[in-house]
Amino acid sequence: MPAVQVRKLDLMDYEPVWRSMSNYTDRRDSTSADEFWLVQHPPVFTQGQAGKAEHVLMPGDIPVVQVDRGGQVTYHGPGQLVLYPLIDLRRLGIGVRDLVTAIEQALVKTLASFGLEAYPKADAPGVYINDAKIASLGLRVRKGCSFHGLSLNVEMSLEPFLRINPCGYQGLEMVQMADLIEPTPCMDSIENELVRCLMEQLGYDKKTIVAGLPDAGACE
Fold first, then answer.
1. Which of 57, 168, 203, 217 is the most buried (most CB within 10 A)?
2. What is the DSSP letter of 166?
3. In 3-state terms, what secondary structure has residue 28?
4. Closest Cα to residue 150, out of 182, 206, 211, 197?
């Protein structure tokens, strides 16, 4: 039966995580585990492959990293839950659009479990509450396998989003769970619910939990 390995990374710099998930994707074969990587990043702007420089307005002291995912510029920082699904799409028998839909529905269901009514938009990937964006996504698929993923704003500083046009949309309002729920649920409970909902959407029926990045050159 389909299983997924959940890798908990805590707070970790963006670039080593990006390099590691790219390396895992390059080295994996038909027997390699599908993985969800859970992480928070220190402050960083990431600019997607098609990202336009004019959407980075005033980065200030926050680094801008050019990356190989789809989409435009976004911000990651402490208090934001990031989940990277490293999935063999061919093995699951799904396409990229199916994965995007599964991620969006998992986010909607996760937020619903905490009493928040959220929804995706057909013309603007991500998840929204009252037209404000609470979760973003950007993916890359290589050799039929996905990496990069989603970010959910939980309890963070939203100020850096004012330094960019988030996801390429001028004036897009960003929101977080802490602005909408009191008290804010703990990160662990949100992580657990998001993993459960994404497993359900993708058809995984069991998981194992590990810590830390995989060894360089290793594919479990």
1. 168
2. G
3. coil
4. 197
**The predicted structure's pLDDT at residue 65:** 94
Residue-wise pLDDT for 76-101, tens only, equals: 999 999 999 999 999 999 999 999 99
Q: Are 201 and 106 in contact (CB under 8 A)?
A: yes
Cα 7 from Cα 22, distance rounded (Å)? 15
**Mean residue pLDDT across the chain:** 94
Residues of the chain with pLDDT under 50: none
Pairwise CA distance, residues 46 & 63, whole Å:
8
Q: Is 145 a catalytic residue?
A: no
Report strand pairing: 3-11 vs 206-211. Answer: parallel
C-beta atoms surrounding 59 within 10 Å: 16
Note whether 158 and 75 are within 8 A (CB): no
How many angstroms separate the Cα of 187 from the Cα of each of 39, 68, 104, 156? 11, 28, 19, 12
CA–CA separation, 36 vs 86, rounded Å?
6
Residue among 167, 186, 197, 219 flagged as catalytic: 167
Q: Per residue in 143-156, pLDDT tens?
A: 999 999 999 999 99
